[in-house]
Amino acid sequence: VACVSAGVQAQAFPGTKPISIVVPFTAGGPTDRVARDLAEALRKPLGGAVVVVDNAAGAGGSIGANKVAKAAPDGHTLLLHHIGMATMPTLVRNIPFKVDSDFEYLGMINDVPMTLVGKPSLPAANYKDLSTWINANKDKVNLGHAGIGSASHLCGLLFQNAIKIDMTTVPYKGTAPAMTDLIGGQIDLMCDQTTNTTSQIEGKSIKAFAVTTTKRLTTPALKDLPTLNDSGLKGFEVTIWHGLYAPKGTPADILTKINAALKAALKDPEFVKKQEGLGAVVVTDKRTEPAEHKKFVAAEIAKWSPIIKAAGVYAD
Ligand code: MLT
């Protein structure tokens, strides 16, 4: 799905063709939300360039990531992706690209908490009730996610591992379609980012049970939710982060221009307001620097690989 900003006179970015931000999940989900807000905030710092969002979903995010890894390194095809860049190398054998060598790192964007949410008819008013219900229905609970290697898949797997109950996991091409089925009651549970769940929780179209951060959140609709860590799952912590990438070999002067525009976009009050309103925290530290972004992803791969292996949650 591309959304072209109508009527914006394309200026010379390096060239006048649109810049495409590839989102490796369907439109309407949490990754797409970050990308559309960022595309809006990048236009001005990129001299009025036309910035579109291209949803290339599937295979837990690796189809979209691969599309950018193989794209022309001209600065006009970028990837906006999340923690999946650090978990896929462990979770999914033979992904068709190398996270450390097939991409140029352009800087990080935000940190996003996750929420454990349930269908509206789920007979539980809090995490304690939910835990009782899961144990009473242990062989028929189903949990939605956005494919093997996605953030919702990782959190769902770690949650099942923490409570030692295997659920039926239902893959979607993004958590937007999964959310539709959760609201409709076709699936029971999901672990998804606040950028996708906050408005549904506010609108009471789903139930919310806990957050996956070690500290409670301050977002009004989420502030009363306990952490899973405080609800008996000691040490449970999953925070999703997003970064921007270009194909390896993109010229340095173009990378510098995009990184400068990204830093300006992250300071755009409109962008910050939209993201913070959904529980996300915009990056203000050194992770906006490409070298620090690359170091952070390498550290995250080292962090998550043993956790994933210990939980025995391989995918294939
Ligand atoms: C995920 O990894 O769960 C994605 O964030 C889902 C999405 O963006 O649709």
State the main characteristics:
316 residues; alpha/beta; 10-stranded mixed beta sheet; 10 helices; binds D-malate
What this model shows, in words?
The protein is α/β, with parallel strands linked by helices and 316 residues long. It contains 10 helices and 10 strands. It has helices spanning 30-43, 62-69, 84-91, 127-136, 151-163, 175-184, 194-202, 252-266, 269-277, 290-310; strands spanning 19-23, 51-55, 77-81, 103-118, 142-145, 168-171, 189-193, 207-211, 239-247, 281-282. Strands 1, 2, 3, 4, 5, 6, 7, 8, 9 and 10 form a 10-stranded mixed beta sheet that branches. Helix 3 (84-91) crosses helix 10 (290-310). The longest helix has 21 residues, at 290-310. The protein is globular, with a radius of gyration of 19 Å. Residues 25-26, 29-31, 82, 84, 146, 150-152, 174-176, 193 line the site of D-malate (MLT). It comes from Limnohabitans radicicola. Belongs to the UPF0065 (bug) family. InterPro entries: BUG, Bug_dom1. Keywords: Signal.
Fraction of residues in helices? Answer: 25-40%
Number of helices: 10
> Could you tell me the mean pLDDT?
93
Largest sheet, if any?
A: 10 strands, mixed
Using only C-alpha atoms, the radius of gyration works out to: 19 Å
Give a topology summary:
Layout: E1 19-23, H1 30-43, E2 51-55, H2 62-69, E3 77-81, H3 84-91, E4 103-118, H4 127-136, E5 142-145, H5 151-163, E6 168-171, H6 175-184, E7 189-193, H7 194-202, E8 207-211, E9 239-247, H8 252-266, H9 269-277, E10 281-282, H10 290-310
Parallel strand pairs: 1-2, 1-3, 5-6, 5-7
Antiparallel strand pairs: 3-9, 4-7, 4-8, 4-9, 4-10
Bound molecules: D-malate.
